[in-house]
């Protein structure tokens, strides 16, 4: 009920952190879901099933190996993997650092490689490094830093 309220009844545009959540929302009629964790190989079959079932099932990538895995496992029926490049802007949990020389190369490889198989939707950053903050100014500083890093990367 909360997710339906949060989406204004559209049942679109939600983010989940587990595939169990994705399956739960898919069963409830949600058909636009972002799995906010770089796809591990051992979860590829589950991600593929959701991508085939839903109008839009989006995943994160943060490595050339992840991109190669998706390219080697295309979706059937003309569907494409919908990918967000996961940037690590200080959280240290997942993603590629925007200043890493390989980050731009990976973004270009996703965007220009085989768009009929893997399509770059955008870039994604999570400010999980705010969890240890003790006050609002500290949270705002991290948010500003993350925003600046993402904008600089996207501009490049």
UniProtKB/TrEMBL annotation:
Q: Which domain of life is it from?
A: Eukaryota
Q: Where is the Alanine racemase N-terminal domain?
A: 9-130
Q: Which Gene3D superfamilies match?
A: Alanine racemase
The molecular function GO annotations come to:
D-serine ammonia-lyase activity
Q: Which GO terms describe its biological process?
A: D-serine catabolic process
**Record-given protein name:** DSD1 dehydratase
Protein's organism = Vidua chalybeata (Village indigobird)
């Amino acid at each position: 009920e909360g997710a339906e309220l949060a989406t204004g009844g559209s049942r679109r545009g939600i983010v989940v952190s587990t595939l169990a959540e994705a399956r739960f929302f898919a069963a409830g009629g949600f058909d636009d879901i972002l799995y906010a964790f770089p796809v591990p190989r051992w979860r590829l079959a589950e991600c593929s099933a959701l991508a085939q079932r839903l109008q839009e099932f989006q995943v994160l990538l943060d490595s050339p190996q992840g991109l190669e895995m998706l390219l080697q496992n295309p979706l059937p029926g003309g569907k494409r993997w919908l990918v967000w490049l996961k940037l690590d802007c200080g959280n240290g949990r997942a993603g590629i650092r925007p200043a890493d020389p390989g980050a731009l190369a990976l973004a270009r490889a996703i965007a220009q490689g085989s768009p009929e198989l893997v399509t770059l939707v955008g870039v994604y950053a999570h400010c999980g490094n705010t969890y240890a903050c003790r006050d609002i100014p500290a949270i705002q500083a991290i948010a500003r830093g993350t925003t600046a890093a993402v904008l600089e990367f996207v501009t490049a």
